Amino acid sequence: MQQQTGEAPMSPYKWGMVVDTDRCTGCQACVVACQAENNVPINEESRFVEHRAKEWIRIERYWEGEYPNIKAHFLPVLCQHCANAPCEMVCPVYATYHSSDGLNVQVYNRCVGTRYCGNNCQWSVRYFNFWEPEWPEPLNSQLNPDVTVRSQGVIEKCTFCIQRINRAKREAAQAGRTVADGELQPACAQACPTDALVFGNLKDPSSRVSQLANDSRQYRLLGGLGTEPAVVYLKKVEAT
Ligand code: SF4
Q1: What residue owns the CA closest to ligand 1's atom 1?
Q2: Ligand 1 pocket mutation, candidates 22, 23, 25, criterion most atoms within 8 A of CB
C-alpha cells in the first residue's frame, strides 16, 4: 500500500550483476544477445572505425606477455548502474535518474542529446545515436516489440533488460510474491555459455548474486571513484 508520506514505498529489490572474468572466454554471445533483445542499432564497419561503436555491453581485450607466450584477458563492460551515478547529476533535463530498484534509468523522450551524461561516464557505456537507426528487411521483423526503438539524437545504454524485470515483477505481484532468485535474467546473462554473468537481487542476502558479490575475488571497476556500482567483478584466477 502507498505510504501516506507521499514517498514511494521501499522496493524489495536492488538489481545487480556479478561478472566473473575468470569464466569469460570473449565469445561475445552476450553482445549479440543484447543487440537482439534491445533493438540496438546495426553498426557498420565504416562507423565503427569512426569510433561510433554501438554495444550496450562490450568485451574489452587485454594482452599479457609476448608471442608465443601470450595470454588474452577479457573484460565485459556494461552500464554499472552506480548508486551515486555521475551521469545522473549532469543531465539538464532529468532524462537519466535512479529508480527505486537501484537502476540507472534513461528516459528517451526527455533526452535532448547534450551528451553531458556520456562525457561524465567513466566507463563510456552510454552511446549516442548519431544516425537514425535502420533495419533493412527482413531484419526489421526481428525487432523486439517490448523495447522502444530509439531515434537519432538521444543517448541509450544498458537497462539490465528492464522490460524483462518489469514483466517478472508484474507476474510475481499477481501471484502475491516477490521475484524469486534465478527467475529473471537479462539477455546477456541468459546467453552466456560459461555462466560468467550472474544477475539478481542484491537486497536478498541469499541470492546467488549477493553471495558472489561477497566473494574474496570481488572488486569494482574504477571502484575508487566512490560511485558504488551495482556491477561487481571477480578477479581472474592465475595459476601459480
Ligand atoms: S557471453 Fe559470457 S563468455 Fe562470452 S563474452 Fe559474454 S560474458 Fe564472456
Answers
A1: 192
A2: 25
Nearest alpha carbon, ligand 1 atom 4: 27
For the question of whether the overall pTM of this predicted structure is more than 0.85, the answer is: yes
Among residues 93, 101, 110, the alpha carbon closest in space to that of 156 is found at 110
**Are the C-beta atoms of residues 20 and 75 closer than 8 Å to each other?**
no
> What's the CATH architecture for 15-234?
2-Layer Sandwich (3.30)
Write down the domain spans for the chain: 15-234
Q: Tens of pLDDT along the chain (240 residues)?
A: 344 444 456 899 999 999 999 999 999 999 999 999 999 998 888 888 887 878 999 999 999 999 999 999 999 999 999 999 999 999 999 999 999 999 999 999 999 999 999 999 999 999 999 999 989 999 999 999 999 999 999 999 999 999 999 999 999 999 999 999 999 999 999 999 999 999 999 999 999 999 999 999 999 999 999 999 999 999 998 776
CA 76 to ligand 1: nearest atom: 7
Q: 194: CA distance to ligand 1 center in Å?
A: 7
Q: Cell 553482445 maps to which residue?
A: 31
**Which residue has the CA at smallest separation from atom 6 of ligand 1?**
30
Burial, 209: exposed, middle or buried (Cβ in 10 Å; 0-12, 13-18, 19+)? buried
